[in-house]
Amino acid sequence: xxxxxxxxxxxLKEVDSKIMKYIDASEEVTSQLLLIEGVINExxxxxxxxxxxxxxxxxxxxxxHEFGDFIQKNYDKVSILRKSFKEVDSNLxxxxxxxxxxxxxxxxxxxxxxxxxxxxxxxxxxSTKSEKYYTRK
Length: 137
Known about the structure:
Elements: H1 9-43, H2 47-94, E1 112-115, E2 133-136
Antiparallel strand pairs: 1-2
Helix pairs in contact: 1-2
């Protein structure tokens, strides 16, 4: 029994878009931290200023490495997921056999479509009646 799995491409594009916005936001925060560190260098001196600069440098380094690695790993997973869904969708929809049911996952709705299945009479010969059978789609 073949089942058709449909993944909404708009959903995958939305996920991709949000990840890219997340990456852009992290770059913006990092650049703002650099500006703050520059202002501290120009305006202050002493142990308190050194501690603030060290804190900002540490924060920027963590964001660049840990946050960047986290985003890159998840972005790669989403890209792989998109390819896998396309592959699964094409493979499963190709296995749809005549007269079997199909399940539509995208909307969760069950729809029915007409399928022209020839009816057989008691002797096994094709009937002259023209009836329509309905299968789930």
